């Protein structure tokens, strides 16, 4: 029978007096049972490699009897992985067990995992067996598996819905036949933590030989309690947790490896255990499994979700800037996230905005900062994602507009298939608001014509160019115009989520530059109309 130190013998161990919990990953077996999550051989090898590197103690590589493809995957993983124990699943039948043993032959350290359902419902309706027949199968299957390897795990499928007396008899039979690991699955995710704690405690107290084996948890997430139940299991004395990356698995999935490992690491005060997992690889493993299974990770998923270390609210961002522990209980680098991200959005405040400006290389005076902050909030109200480029465009506009004589105040444009476009523009010229309306050949032409009515000039429009600052339909448009007067050209630039507003801003910015140039040569040459 294997002991914890034998199973984890080549896992680098931190010096610790805490109890060691074995991490049994079943992403490649139970995880792959998720409808639509099947992986190619090459993908399985990649996942096995990363599991091995991150310090998983046991990798359940597949169910060899299921198909030739599964057999080959288990066989190749067995021949390749040198550190983790490689495990193959089998029903309580000789042909399954022998097939698993054959697939596992190349492994340096191999485990056969054999299971049979023990609940009244499963025995009667699914297996069509009496309890005594099932009990006999337990002995026969474990005995047969032990002929192939010393490392045998036995599982009581639907264990949490099994009568306690019968479960005790089955576990005792499995131990007597030579199983070193006894797994008690909550196959349908039905249990609650107190109940699961009591179940593992009861088995450890009542079953002869229980002290000589490792009890294991295998919890499904149908009621969202897979991780809580697994943790209750180790508090009751289980020393192996079966789990999957991203919680992949049948129906609502299995207990998520990353959540288990980080809960143990973060709450050592109430969970005095250690795992051998290099937590810095968690996000990498999560991304790989998400890619190969084509199962996206939800943004707010614990530990590995995109938002797990991201903050948008001003009050949280302010707290984070003052002390990260105000709103983060784990360090992002400990799970492989390079840094916390303070996402700029409509809920952000001045502290975070100032920090962002400094990071982007801007030092604004107090008034310019307040103006920029107001424009940022206006933009964030209209735009779902405010990217660094948006803030740069906004500040560049602000900086360019400082000290200028003409400012855009308002614009209304009506255009479409119903005739000529009409624009109404209000500008602030030297502190006075002027409004004019004009028709035009399209909305840009109408807008520029209305501006020309307010600011008379003889410059020709040589270039009009629109580009998107960022991606998406709510991206800011960045418009550039080139105006030419007396052989001299100026360029104007404007950015806004509304292309017409960006166009008007660009035209006004060009006119401001013309005014500056003319003022140097012929003061008062440009006048408001
Ligand atoms: C809770 C779990 O995750 S259990 C693992 C579930 N995973 C899978 O089923 C994935 C792989 N499975 C497969 O590829 C196929 O189901 C196979 C190859 C295992 C079996 O295929 P088939 O022989 O065509 O049988 P099928 O899947 O239709 O039915 C399952 C049979 O296994 C029996 N069975 C189920 N569990 C066990 C067990 N632990 N021990 C012995 N027999 C079992 C069922 O009673 C049924 O037997 P029957 O044919 O006499 O009625
Ligand atoms: C095969 C067993 C361990 C299983 O996956 C379950 O019961 O959920
Ligand atoms: Mg399962």
Automatic annotation (TrEMBL):
Enzyme Commission number(s): 2.3.3.13
Regulatory domain: annotated span: 407-529
Coiled coil start-end: none
Residues in Pyruvate carboxyltransferase domain copies: 21-283
SMART domains: LeuA_dimer (SM00917)
Domain of life the protein comes from: Bacteria
GO CC terms of this entry: cytosol
Binding-site residues for Mn(2+), renumbered to this chain: 30, 218, 220, 254
Top-level EC class: transferase
Transmembrane regions listed in the UniProt entry: none
InterPro entries xrefs: 2-IPM_HCS-like (IPR050073), 2-isopropylmalate_synth_dimer (IPR013709), AIPM/Hcit_synth_CS (IPR002034), Aldolase_TIM (IPR013785), LeuA/HCS_post-cat (IPR054691), LeuA_allosteric_dom_sf (IPR036230), LeuA_bact_synth (IPR005671), PYR_CT (IPR000891)
Residues making up the signal peptide according to the UniProt record: none
An individual GO BP term: L-leucine biosynthetic process
Role according to the record: Catalyzes the condensation of the acetyl group of acetyl-CoA with 3-methyl-2-oxobutanoate (2-ketoisovalerate) to form 3-carboxy-3-hydroxy-4-methylpentanoate (2-isopropylmalate).
Complexes and interactors: Homodimer.
Name used for this protein in its record: 2-isopropylmalate synthase
Organism: Faunimonas pinastri
């Amino acid at each position: 029978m294997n002991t914890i130190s034998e199973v984890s013998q080549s896992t680098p161990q931190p010096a610790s007096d805490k109890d060691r919990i074995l991490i049994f990953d079943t992403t490649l077996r139970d995880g792959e049972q998720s409808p639509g999550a099947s992986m190619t051989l090459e993908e399985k090898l990649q996942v096995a490699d990363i599991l091995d590197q991150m310090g998983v103690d046991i990798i359940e590589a597949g169910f060899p009897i299921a198909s030739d493809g599964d057999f080959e995957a288990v066989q190749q993983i067995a021949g390749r992985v040198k550190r983790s124990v490689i495990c193959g699943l089998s029903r309580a039948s000789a042909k399954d067990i022998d097939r698993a043993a054959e697939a596992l032959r190349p492994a340096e350290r191999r485990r056969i995992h054999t299971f049979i359902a023990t609940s009244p419902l499963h025995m009667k309706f699914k297996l069509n067996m009496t309890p005594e027949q099932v009990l006999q199968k337990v002995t026969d299957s474990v005995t047969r598996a032990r002929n192939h390897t010393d490392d045998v795990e036995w599982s009581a499928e639907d264990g949490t819905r099994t009568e306690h007396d019968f479960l005790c008899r089955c576990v005792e039979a499995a131990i007597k036949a030579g199983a070193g690991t006894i797994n008690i699955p909550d196959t349908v995710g039905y249990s609650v933590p107190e109940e699961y704690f009591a179940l593992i405690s009861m088995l450890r107290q009542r079953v002869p030989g229980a002290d000589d084996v490792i009890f294991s948890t295998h919890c499904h997430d149908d009621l969202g309690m897979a991780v809580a139940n697994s943790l209750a299991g180790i508090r009751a004395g289980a020393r192996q947790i079966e789990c999957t990356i991203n919680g992949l698995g049948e129906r609502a999935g299995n207990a998520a490896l990353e959540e288990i490992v980080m809960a143990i690491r973060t709450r050592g005060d109430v969970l005095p255990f250690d795992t051998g997992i290099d937590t810095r690889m968690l996000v990498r493993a999560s991304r790989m499994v998400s890619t190969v299974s084509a199962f996206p990770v939800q943004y707010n998923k614990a530990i590995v979700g995109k938002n797990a270390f991201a903050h948008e609210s001003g009050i949280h961002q302010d707290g984070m800037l003052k002390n990260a522990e105000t709103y983060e209980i784990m360090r992002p680098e400990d799970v492989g996230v390079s840094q916390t991200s303070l996402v700029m959005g409509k809920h952000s405040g001045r502290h975070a905005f100032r920090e962002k400006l400094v990071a982007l290389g801007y030092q604004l005076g107090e008034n310019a900062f307040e103006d920029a902050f107001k424009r940022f909030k206006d933009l964030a109200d209209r735009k779902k994602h405010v990217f660094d480029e948006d803030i740069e465009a906004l500040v560049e506009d602000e900086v360019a507009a400082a000290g200028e004589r003409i400012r855009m105040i308002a614009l209304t444009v009506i255009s479409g298939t119903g005739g000529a476009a009409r624009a109404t523009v209000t500008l602030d010229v030297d502190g006075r608001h002027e409004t004019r309306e004009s028709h035009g050949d399209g909305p840009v032409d109408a807008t520029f014509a209305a501006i020309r009515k307010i600011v008379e000039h003889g410059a020709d429009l040589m270039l009009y160019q629109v580009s998107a600052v960022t991606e998406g339909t709510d991206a800011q448009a960045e418009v550039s115009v080139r105006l030419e007067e007396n052989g001299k050209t100026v360029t104007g630039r404007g950015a806004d989520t509304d292309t017409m507003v960006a166009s008007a801003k660009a035209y006004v910015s060009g006119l401001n530059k013309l005014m500056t140039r003319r003022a140097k040569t012929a003061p008062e040459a440009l006048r408001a109309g």
